[in-house]
Amino acid sequence: MDLDKSDIKMHRFEQSDVIGENSRSKGMNRERCFWVILAILLIAAVIGVSVYFTKNYVKKSDDPAAGSVTDSQVGKKTTTAQPPTGSNTQTSTQATATTTSVMKPKPSLEELQRRVDCIPEYQGRQVKPTEELCNNRGCIYDETDELGIPVCYFSQKKGYKVTGVTETPLGYRVNLENRGEGPFGDDWVEAFDDPVFKRYKVPLDLDLPKEKGDNPKYEFSITNNDTFAFQIKRQSTGKVLWDTGVGGLVLSDQFLQVSTSLPSVHVYGFGENLHRTFQHDLNHTTWPMFSRDQAPSHQAYSNLYGVHPFYTCMEGGGHSHGVFLLNSNAMDYSFTPLPMLTYRTIGGVLDFYMFLGPEPENVVQQYTGDIQYADIDHFDANKDFTIDQDKFGTLPQYFQKLQAQGMRTVIILDPAIISNMTMGTYEPYDNLTALRGSVMWPDDLKVADADTDSTGALLGYVWPTGKSVFPDFFKKSTQDLWSRLIVKHHDTLPFDALWIDMNEPANFGTNEERPWNWPEEAKPYWSLHCPTNNKLEDPPYRTKAAFLFDSEEGRDGRLSDKTICMVSRQGENGEYFHYDVHSLYGWSETPPTFRGVREATGERSFVLSRSTYPGSGKYAGHWTGDNDAAWSDLSASIIGMLEFNLFGIPYDQDPGVFGPEVGEASRVAMETRYWLLPYLYTLFHNAHTEGKTVVRPLFHEFPNNEALYGVDKQFLWGPSLLITPILEEGATEVTYTIPDGKWYDFYTGESVTGYKGDMKRVVDHSSNIGLHVRAGSIIPMQYPATNTFYSRKNGFVLLVALNDEHIAAGELFWDDGNSVDTYETGNYFLSYFMAKQNSVAMSIAHENTAGLPSMVVDEVRVMGAPVGVTRVYCDGRDVLVLSDLGLPMSREFKIYWSLESEDERQRHDCIPEAQGRGVEVTQTLCEARGCKYKIGASQGPTCYMDLNNYGYKVMGDRIDTQFGFTYQLERKSKHGLFNSALNPDIQKLNFTVEMRSRDVLRFKFDDARGGRYEVPATLNLGSNKVTDTRYEVKVTSNDPFAFQVIRKATKEVLWDTGVGGLTFSNHFLHIATRLPTRNVYGFGENIHHTLRHDLNYKGWPLFSRDQPTSWGDYLNHYGVHPFYMCTESQDKGHYSHGVLLLNSNAQDYSFTPLPMLTYRTIGGVLDFYMFLGPEPENVVQQYTGDVQYADIDHMASQMDFTIDDSKFPGLDTYFKELQAGGMHIIIILDPTLISNMTNYEPYDRMTSTNSNIRWDTNEYVPLDSKNNKSDLLGYVWPNGKVVFPDFFKNSTHQMWEELIVKHHNTKLTFDGLWIDMNEPANFGTNEERPWNWPPEAKPYWSLNCTLAGNLYEHPPYRTSRFTILKKYWFG
């Protein structure tokens, strides 16, 4: 039993050698006992338990306890199962039934449904379930009146006995002893050396873990040692998922059978069959699995083109699991209403894999455009890799014309290669013959000359006019040749993709007088006749794939009918019988076809295959076959789509044309599908990368709603689109189901909420297909065009379907649609959409769209938007409708809407501290600050300034000055934010404008009384007023005061304070301006995730701090740069300007999407400089080798101007050697100087000249925080308290320069300096101790700046993010 990953279990039952007429011993003793091993391998990560039965060559154990399985052997408590009450059992293991005249109690219905049929062939026309035949098979005969109950069934006393258990690296191996002969003999009796590999196994490698896993989701236990049976349970619920206690286990050479009861009747999958319902009918139904050229509408209960032995089961409680049997021989699967499932196969091994989900989509994940089709008619005489020059001579030119119009072309390839062409005239056959690359007859089988070519290849007859050979794709040389032929054919006919057909493989007229398409006049007739009296051609159990086709005339159906002979050989050395690998033919053809078409086209391309097997979905899609395009085929196609999505082949069904009466509806459906292609494309991407389904049943999204388990006339595209087609001709009403939650009609936007299982809709021939959008979804769409080549160039549309919480989400994957492996190589675009409350935004997860057409969102449609929306804000614009947006998807965006009549984007936040962790926006706090409080804003603040009587007004006339002009301003009646006795509003201001340069404008707000701190930096401006400026300053309002800065050349307004909010108090200054565009860059030092600022209510602080960039967003780091640049409107020249606020106090800047910029600072003046460019490089111009680094470690005790000679002896000599070699040396200096060292010159000189930062002698100084000169003490890297040089003092400048020169001349010949920790940094401020203070050095100390009542330490406004981090700052 292999357990691979904790979600999947596997069971494997194996036999011995390969099967064949000449490969097994004659005259086996059927009376003796023999042995079988059950190997249980436990790998528990995602996959689960692999159980396989094999013959055992080990002698029978003499240990009398060998038949008992203990807890220590299996790891689970085991019990012994008892036969059900009243069941019929045999009293011996002889192959005869016992009759008696004693009246037996009537079996219960459950007991009847547990019967495992011993004569399933009675469903054909040749075998009757007689008592004699039943006795011959060693089964029990008991007639019953219950319909469908078998009258001949297996005894539960027969089977296998446990004789021992051994632990293996991956699980366990259980030794089993046969307790009786099977119905067809040849039970596994002979010993062999390698039980795992001697018998045929499917050559399909699964990606399983190599080690036993932990914490499996399942529990495996043996429930009966005497008649071996086991159970698999789900750990979390105790639900039994598999239980073989129903009996019927048979392991013989050409008949392997296992039965299990199921946890529920909700079973899906298996194929490829025509199932009339998606949920299986368990009323005693049997289906074959054997790939065959069998159209879906021609025979009920038949197998079609492919084989998929995989099913899923809903257990209840929303849980689901799946089971896969890795076996490619002809097989059946049967159900009873118990519910019970029986597998029968005629070869290989029983190798099961169970997938534990627990949700339906998890199970499938674990398991694993408009184009024109060219059918076989274009071939010359139906020969592959040819063109009929008479009928289709201009086909290459036609294809090129279609491709120039954006169309795609697909041609067909059948595997059969005609053999009767003159040597040298048909390259495919010549090359295949040279390689001996065809399916071959066995070397030891005498074959008529008419049935083989010169190489021994099997001949058949399909479409070409002549006998054909069949390429053997299990041979590497054949695969390579096939790919080369595809590439060469593309040089002649430029197709885009390939459709491989007839690859079951199909052969016409096998075992008949002549193929149906053999020319009637071409005598003598010939057809392929497969050997008779051969166990491979006519196995003892023929499976339903053969007996379903028993003729009324008495002819037995054969496996080889409509295909090639079972005895033929395949593989590099003929190691496979076609008997074993028949159903793998299409699977083996697909990879070389896929490689060939990709190499030929150089693009992604695709392959469409008629015959498939598990694993085919990696290389090919599938269509649902050659149906009759009847109305009944519509509902069948839904089931086919759902099943193939379970099988990992998620191609959707293309709408058929059902006459002119539905033509308009079909056109609408096709146009709708074009609209939805981006959504579908994303679903297919998720199928490729995550194994999700594209088309899925309703219960996959709603697994807890059992009422949906049987719904198969509707389906979902992904999680979000519910499709309800009209499936009956002339229908006037459609009954349909709406799943849980809210759904919107795609066409009308009307909503319906809650599960509704019996809804009615009136329809006619012109009605649209029912289409509902799930609330909570965002569907990316695109304007349609005549084909995808053109539609992919169109704008996108977002369909936002809000749920009751006004939330929705979606995603878009996009690439060029052609290139190979774009996801793996990173050449794609991936974005996520999120709607929340009153907004929808796009975030970009990955963007590499070089070569793609420009991606633009042109329209947003919102379903469920609140009534009364008055404003919609899109990328900073106030728009009335969400169309013609032109939003480039190369950058993130946000759209939001509001019920407010005022423009939220102009609101000034009254409680910006709420961005931290210590302040909450409340109505009480809001009103205490004199502000407005209004909830329901889309994105803007709920507490904002009341601008009535707020700000300043002009006093008197303009006063001209030497450099420009001045306005005197007086505060209006309403107090400013944070006004208090300690922080009074400044009553009178001067607004000064200086025009001392053509390109540079200065404007400044200052206290009219003067005396406020200003940055001691002088800009190099002109000494006279300039009249020929690029700008104009215009006062637009005297009361309240507002002004604009306008570029003269374009009349574009660059600054506009008409948005209000001017505040000027002692410790809080606030000014805001409308910006000309959203193209804003700069400010720092902060982490910005895009060069262009996100203006959607974002804010950052400006306050230098020892703050690593890895500590998060919206923080300031080491430096402060209150400078930004803005590019102006494109229609006005796309000029640029920059603005500097010359203020060094703690401050922050924030944006709204108006766009509006707000500055807040807690000191100084508002001193702005605008640089007019006009080019970006001009703005920067106006605003203003190879090295080796030596870090602080080279200093003695990390003290400036020292060298640690013990760790860095000869450092100066080393530096000189580097310099001689052309290198340059940079050393580090931190500004702090240790204070507790004797004869440390830097400290002694700085202290003696009063050159350090000092405490205010009028203020309280915390304990041990100053020296005898009242210098402030801190703690950084040196092992002791430090002082901080005050570089605003000339004495400090002189001293620092002298120390640097002396250090260079006498100690270390460096070339440059790296100054660090100069925010300035201090460790542990306001904490118990610095992080690097030695733990053993007590008492602890750190600089404490929590001075009560001090407005410098506790300003009324603490600037952005101050409440988040106070570390590493000294005051």
UniProtKB/TrEMBL annotation:
Biased amino acid composition, Polar residues: 69-88
Primary localization class, coarse: membrane
Span of domain P-type: 107-156
UniProt xrefs under SUPFAM superfamilies: (Trans)glycosidases, Galactose mutarotase-like, Glycosyl hydrolase domain, Trefoil
Keyword vocabulary terms for this entry: Disulfide bond, Glycoprotein, Glycosidase, Hydrolase, Membrane, Transmembrane, Transmembrane helix
SMART domains: PD
Annotated spans, Disordered: 63-106
Gene3D superfamilies: Glycosidases, glycosyl hydrolase (family 31), Golgi alpha-mannosidase II, Spasmolytic Protein, domain 1
Name under which the protein is recorded: MGA-like protein
